[in-house]
Structure formats: C-alpha cells, structure tokens
Amino acid sequence: MVETVLETHGLTMRFGGVVASDNVDFKLQARELRCLIGPNGAGKSTFFKCVTGLQTPSEGEVYMRGVETTHWMPHQIASMGVGIKTQTPNVMDSLSVFENIWLAARRFHNPQDANRKTQEIIERLALGSIARDDLGRLAHGERQRVELGLVAVGDPWLVLLDEPAAGMSAEDVERMTEIIHELNKTAAIIIVEHDMKFIRSIAEKVTVFHQGKVLMEEHVDRVMSDPTVRNVYLGKKA
Amino acid sequence: MPGSLSKDAITILLVTAILIWIMPQLISTYTLTILIVYGMLGLSLGLIWGFGGILCFGQAAFFGLGAYTYAIAAINIGESTFPMLLAVLVPAAFAALLGAMMFYGRLTDVYLGVITLVVTLILFKFINSTAGPQYVIGNARLGGFNGIPGFQTLNIPGRPDDYIWGDSYFYVCAVLLALVLFLVSALLRSSFGRVAVGIRENEVRMSLMGYDVRARKTVLFAVGAAIAGLAGALFANWAEIVTPSLFSLGQSAEIIIWCIVGGLGTRFGPILGAAGLAYLKFLLGQQSVVDNTLITGLILVLFVLFLPKGIVPALAGLWKVSFGRRPQGRIHQQRRMRNRGGANG
Q: A5, B235, B328, B341: least CB-packed within 10 angstroms?
C-alpha cells in the first residue's frame, strides 16, 4: 500500500469575511508529483501557507505521515523532513551560496557531514563557480537554484515548492525541471505554479483551485482540455 | 566569517597587549578601566544586534541589574567572587525570561524595541523609589536615588581583605574583556553563531529550514545580557557606588550610538565606538562651552549621514581596497561575464 504523506480535511482559511481556502480535502501519496494551479486569488498560496505552518487554518486539519500538524510552526514541520520553498527567493542575501546551503545542511547533520552534503549539493546543482559569492549579487535564476539547494540538502520526503520557475530563463527552467525530477525519486512534491508550459513538462496529476475550493483533480492532459478549467483559468481562447 | 579562531586569538592577544602596555602611557589606568567596561557593554549589544538582529533599547537594564546584583550580593556575602557570578547570572536569567516572552510572543522589531525600553524605564523608576527603609535585601538597603555605596569591592577569590584595585583592577578588566571577546568570537564561529547570523538575515527562511528562531534568539539575548551584567559588576567595582542612573534612557541610547559609530556586525566596532565616545565625553566634560549631549548627537548624525556602516567596516573596506585581494565573488562574476560574452560572440 502506498503511504499517504500529506492529507488535509476540510481545510478552511478565512480573512475577515473572505474565505481564501474553503473546505479543501487533499491527499498526496509518497513520491507523487502534484501541481496546484488556478487563477490569481484561487487559494493556492493560502493552502500552501496553511500546510507549511506559515498560517494557521481557521478550520480543518493537516496530517503529514499520519501526524496532525495543523497548529505546528514552520520549523517543526521542516524538522520532520519537509522541504519548503516560498514564492519569492527567500534566502540570506549577505551570506555566500556555501553558507546558505551549509546552514540548511547543519540542521540535519553534524558539522563535518554538513560540509560534505553542502559540497555535494553545490556540485549537483552546478553552483561551484558561484559557491563563494554572496546571494545578493546573484541573478534571479541562480537564487532560485540555490533555494532549491536549501530544500534538497535536508534529504526531504516531502517538498513544497511555490512557483519555482517564476522569472527564470528557459535554460534555468530546464535545469530546474531536472532537479525536481531527481528530488522526486525520493520525495513527494507539490508545486504551486502558473507557467503552463512548465506544468505540462513536469506534472502528471494536477489539482485546480478556484475561489478557494478544489475545482478538479485529474491528469494534466484532461485538465488542460476541460472546458470549465479553460473558462476559469486559461480563458476561452486557450 | 573568514579566518579561524586561532587567528582571532592572536588578534585579541595583540590588541590586549597594546591595551596593557601602550595605552597606560597615554591615558590613566583609572580612565582606561571605565573605557574597558563601556567597551564590554558595547560588545554586549553589538553581539545581539550586530549578529543576531535584535535591536534592544534596554541594554542598560542588564548593565544596571548586573551592577545592583553585585552590590547587593557583595554587602550580604562580604566577598566578591560569588557576587561577580551572580551579576552575570541574574541579568542572563532576567533576559531569558523577557526574551522568551517577546520572541515566543512573536513580537516584531518595533514592539521589541518598545518593550525593552519600557522595562528599562520601569526598573529606573522602581529603583529610584526605593529610598525608604523597607526596601532592603538582606543587609543591603537599595537606597533609592542615592544608590548603594560602600560595598565590598573586588578581592582575590577566597581572600576578602586582599582587594584588587588601581592598576591591578585595570589589568583584571583588560584580561576579562579579552576573554569575553574571545568567547564571543568562538560563539560566532560555532554553529550557533552562524545560525544566529542566518536568523539576522532571514528569520522566515531559517524557520523554514527547521530552526526554532524563538529559542535561539532567546539564548542569544540572554548571552548579551550576561555580558552586560559582567560589565555592570565591573562598573560597580570601579565606581564603588551604584545608582539608578545606570538604568537611565540616556545610558541605553549611548550604547546604541556606540554600536552605530563603531560598526555593527563587527566584534571590535562596538568596543572601539564605546571606548572612543566615552573618552570623548570624558574630555568634553572638562569644559563647559559646548553641551556634551549635543556633541554626541552631532557625531551620531554625521556618522549616519557619511559613515553609516561605522568606523571598523569603513577601515576594513579601506584596507581591502588598498592591500587586500580582490573579492572572490567579483572574480567569479567577471569570469561568468567573460564566458557569456565568449558564448555570445
């Protein structure tokens, strides 16, 4: 039987009178790769924040590997072995690439192993030439790649990525796709994304959000050709 | 942080040697002692603010608490060793409680500043109002605005009649400052210190990497308070009296100015800033033409406008430009740009 690594029951998030996430039931199996799509304001990011502990849901429950994590803080969730990448590159700008990744590695390894793991990730993500550069000096794509390194170095079993391909060049997106596929060999992955080309290239199953609810959960091809999805998300001409 | 701990140790030894052998030729050891004490106080805020990103408006509270703890304990015990330890532990414990309340309460920087300021004010007001005979701890009367005079000053451990004073006290303070500076360097080079710098840079990211930011900030805050407490105890021994002015807002503001002028994010900056400005204040105190506070304020404005990073980072930058190697980052960047140019061409 395949293990369920993430599950939500009736996840609801209200901001005053606005219901950003409305009674969402969601399941993710081990080593599954799922994309979350939807128009702006559909509730994808709110769902992401509730799952990662960045926001506490108004109602409902979140379970990770069978453990309830609804009211957990982000550091507690990350400590379980969950890798999280937020929408904008969220890194330590005045520290070097090596120091950034080392700090992530140190959380799960002793100093010597952290050095070794950091070096491994730097080689795997082809960051060697910029390893001693401060993050603040790097291009957007490089920063995104480094942040993925922060996620990967902890050997996570669940990876949550919010718009990993945003603002990246075609070359960078291609490299990002490879990295995500490699991560997917050992971890289940959720990707919140807008870039349909990227989604087609990476996803099999897609969950469509609309007005805070799950509109549809299907194979990417079926989702793309569904008239309702096209109406709410892609537009009629797509 | 580049370099190694052994390099830090050599630098600290050199600076201490200069302080012990050369500085007494220029300034009296009595004045140097208080500059060292203020340097240690500056370092305490420099550690938590410059490396942990915690802007505390009430570092004077821990300084005063250290001084009062020492004075009260020294009167009751009659020997200085245990009171010195208490002067470090009591502010640290107080800061741990206050810090836990603030950091676990998820207070943002502005509220943190306000709370630390208010706590300092409360202590200032409270100590000022303890003139009555009912305010007694053991044999020690708190004394209100008059403070506590006449307590046992530093002695050789276990020998209450062998006082350490004059030049000897200066040497003790210099060695203690060197020791604290070395311990701070070791802390900053440890995983804990590197994580603290990461938290200063991006709390959310560090939290998403699995670090309990609240606990680490609380510990760092307590370490800073312990250093301030030690400085307070040394001050009490130097002045031989403790008064509520130790908790004053002016004292808190001065510590912040020392750090800004000396250079945040450096270990030597806050010490130099504290010693330099305190000495300037001492010199200015000998004249009555210009108001002291006005000059300190003017210096702060000038530094914020023209040298916002402070003296030590400015000097380090100047050294790098003049004698240092080109930063690795720039070399890589130029190499990348060349490669891109080659590929395009």
A: B341
Give B211's contacts in chain A (Cβ within 8 Å): 75, 107
Full residue range of the structural domain in which residue B86 is found: 5-248
Q: What is the CATH number of the domain that holds A205?
A: 3.40.50.300
* Interface probe, candidates B205, B218, B266, chain A, greatest A C-beta count within 10 A: B205
Chain B neighbors of A128, CB-CB under 8 A = none
Using only C-alpha atoms, chain B has a radius of gyration, in whole angstroms, of 22
* Contact at CB, A78 and B208, closer than 8 angstroms: yes
- Among residues B248, B282, B301, which one ends one of the domains? B248
Of B191, B197, B207, the CB nearest to A75: B207
Tokens 């050992």 correspond to: A186
Over residues B181-208, the pLDDT tens digits come to: 999 999 999 999 999 999 999 999 999 9
A1, A25 Cβ separation under 8 angstroms: no
Structural domain total, chain B: 2
B153 in Cβ contact with B237 (< 8 Å): yes
Does the distance separating the beta carbons of A75 and B332 come in below 8 Å? no
Find chain A residues with C-beta within 8 A of B333's C-beta: 133, 137
Domain holding A44, by residue range, is 4-234
Answer whether B212 sits within 8 Å of A75, measured CB to CB: yes
Query: What's the pLDDT tens digit per position in B64-116?
Result: 999 999 999 999 999 999 999 999 999 999 999 999 999 999 888 889 999 99
Whole-complex ipTM: 0.91
Residue B287 lies in a domain: no
Q: Which token pair is A76?
A: 């507690």
CB contact, 8 Å: B208 with chain A?
A: yes
Note whether B98 and B184 are same-domain residues. Answer: yes
Distance from the Cα of residue B188 to its chain's centroid: 15
